[in-house]
């Protein structure tokens, strides 16, 4: 899971670096050749894109650095932690929901994925099968019982 995310982010970094070092300088050079830069929309657009790409590269590099700091051996094997897939049941409604705890800091989350720093992620962390997590929301408080758990160690093996 972590290796796949690193690979995905590294691919985006490579594309953005190419754009920053090859594509955008060519566009800026072409725009400069057109003359007066004060009213040159192509030039302004290229510079704006350049600033965006630099900012995005900074974000990605920071995220890759954080991912490199994660020590998978420190993630619990018997409790909810990063990469865990958890099935919870609301005792009041008997409805089951599945969540996967992911390292999230503004990245795109897929269905069922929750960030470790989200309210539900924080409520589920370090809980074992059979334990209840209390999720305090602005409108109500939910109690979720953990009925099944697959940790990152079990998922990577499966």
CATH superfamily label of the largest domain: Transcription elongation factor, GreA/GreB, C-terminal domain
Helix content: 40-55%
Q: How is the CATH topology of the largest domain named?
A: Chitinase A, domain 3
Strand order of the largest sheet: 3-2-1-5-4
Multimeric organization:
single chain
Number of strands: 5
**Spatial gap, N to C terminus:** 12 Å
Which features does this protein show?
elongated, 4 helices, Helix Hairpins, alpha+beta, Chitinase A, domain 3, single chain, 46% helix, 5-stranded mixed sheet
Report on this model:
- With 158 residues, the chain is α+β, with helices and mostly antiparallel strands.
- It folds into two domains: 2-69, Helix Hairpins, CATH 1.10.287; 73-157, Chitinase A, domain 3, CATH 3.10.50.30.
- Helix content is 46%, strand content 20%.
- The chain contains four helices and five strands; from the N terminus they run H-H-E-E-E-H-E-E-H.
- The chain has helices at residues 2-33, 41-68, 119-124, 152-157; strands at residues 85-90, 95-102, 113-115, 132-136, 141-150.
- A five-stranded mixed β-sheet has the order 3-2-1-5-4.
- Helix 1 (2-33) packs antiparallel against helix 2 (41-68).
- It starts with a helix and ends with a helix.
């Amino acid at each position: 899971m972590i290796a796949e995310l690193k690979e995905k982010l590294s691919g985006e970094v490579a594309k953005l670096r190419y754009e920053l070092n090859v594509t955008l300088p060519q566009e800026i050079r072409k725009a400069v050749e057109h003359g007066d830069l004060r009213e040159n929309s192509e030039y302004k657009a290229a510079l704006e894109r350049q600033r965006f790409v630099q900012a995005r590269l900074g974000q990605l590099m920071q995220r890759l650095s954080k991912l490199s700091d994660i020590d998978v051996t420190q993630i619990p094997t018997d409790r909810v932690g990063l990469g865990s897939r958890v099935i919870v049941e609301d005792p009041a409604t008997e409805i089951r929901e599945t969540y996967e705890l992911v390292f999230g800091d503004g990245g795109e989350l897929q269905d069922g994925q929750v960030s470790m720093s989200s309210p539900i992620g924080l409520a589920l962390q370090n809980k074992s099968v059979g334990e209840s997590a209390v999720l305090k929301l602005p409108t109500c408080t939910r109690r979720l019982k953990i009925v099944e758990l697959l940790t990152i160690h079990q998922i990577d093996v499966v």
